Each structure stands twice: as structure tokens, then as C-alpha cells.
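Chain A, query sequence.
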Amino acid sequence: MTTPDPAAEGRRRADELLTALTAGDDAAAEALLAGLDEIRDLVFVGAGLTVIARAEGRALPTAQRAQASTRQLKLGEVRDANRDDPEGLRTWLRRSAEEVLFIRSLHARQG
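Chain A, predicted structure.
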């Protein structure tokens, strides 16, 4: 049996978290987050969310892109402050996922 690529697994879980939140299924989102016990797993999900947020944020108008970039920096501070605390990292993941949904809502208003 091969071990899944941790980055790919993190991205898959990030997509799963976003799908649950988009559907309004907070219970599924919380269950996914609660099932992540290892700091390493939490960080890989966060990396997946960060990649999504940055990629989608680049398509925003200049002012909104700058604001999204500032929010990413603040999310990084939350991550850094909780680097050894799984519960704090779960909070970071939830906020990071909400940031992606916010960026998507900005795109929806434009188009």
C-alpha cells in the first residue's frame, strides 16, 4: 500500500471542507476538522486552502486583491500563534476556508 502524497491529501481535505461549508453543512465541516489530530495534517490542509485563496484572489480587482493579501497575512499570524495547538490550527483552517468563500462571493458579485 502506498502512502498518499501529504500535499495532495491536504488539498483534497481543503476541497472537502470548502464543499461542506458551501453547502451550509457545518456539522460535516466540524467533523472533518475534528478528525484532523496531527499538526502536520492540519498544516497541509491549511496549505491547500492558502493555495486556493491566493489563486482565486489574484483574479480580483486591484483594491480587493490588496485587501485579500492583507487578510492572508493576518491568517498567517493566527497560524503562527497556534503552531503547536491543534485546536488553534482548526480555528485557523475554519477562518481560512471562510476567506476562500468570501473571495468567491466577491467574484460572484462581479460576474
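The two ends are 45 Å apart (CA to CA). DSSP finds five helices and no strands in the chain.
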